[in-house]
Amino acid sequence: MAEVVLFQLPISIFGSLELAVATLLERRQSVNRWFPAVRLKMDRVRPGEPDSLEASLMQLINDHHDKSLKLRAFTEQSKKDAVQSATRVSDLLVDAVNGGVQEAYAIEKKIEMEIRALAASIMRFGKQTDQWLAASHAINTAIKKGCTNAVSGFMCV
């Protein structure tokens, strides 16, 4: 796109379209005051002709509008890209956190199974211990009875 030049100064140095138009009008009035011959030439230019002020202003407005549309499209695309990037990052973070949670859950389940197995073993060993205690108590009692009988005449072995 060609840049419109006002008296050999590009629009970009003015900063805004309004300032460029105001400067153009101000310079035209200044030229009309100081150089009447140029004014007569400018008066001969008809609106709609390529060299007219109106054509220059329309070109400025059209260029400004085109740049605004391009900037808006660029902004929208940048916004969409940013949203997609943020979504991707959040998905990756969720996956990373969930991966750790899943691993911790699996380990917790294994530990619970081992605890249950140990509890069952403890119960089984507790019952066996009780049985051994009962058996040893019975043997002890039998030995004591045998020794009491030994006092009455039998010998305790």
Automatic annotation (TrEMBL):
InterPro entries noted in UniProt: BLOC1S1
Pfam families: GCN5L1 (PF06320)
GO biological process: endosomal transport
Gene Ontology cellular component annotations, sorted alphabetically: BLOC-1 complex
Protein family according to the UniProt entry: Belongs to the BLOC1S1 family.
Name of the protein described by the UniProt record: Biogenesis of lysosome-related organelles complex 1 subunit 1
The species this protein was found in: Cuscuta epithymum
Taxonomic path: Eukaryota, Viridiplantae, Streptophyta, Embryophyta, Tracheophyta
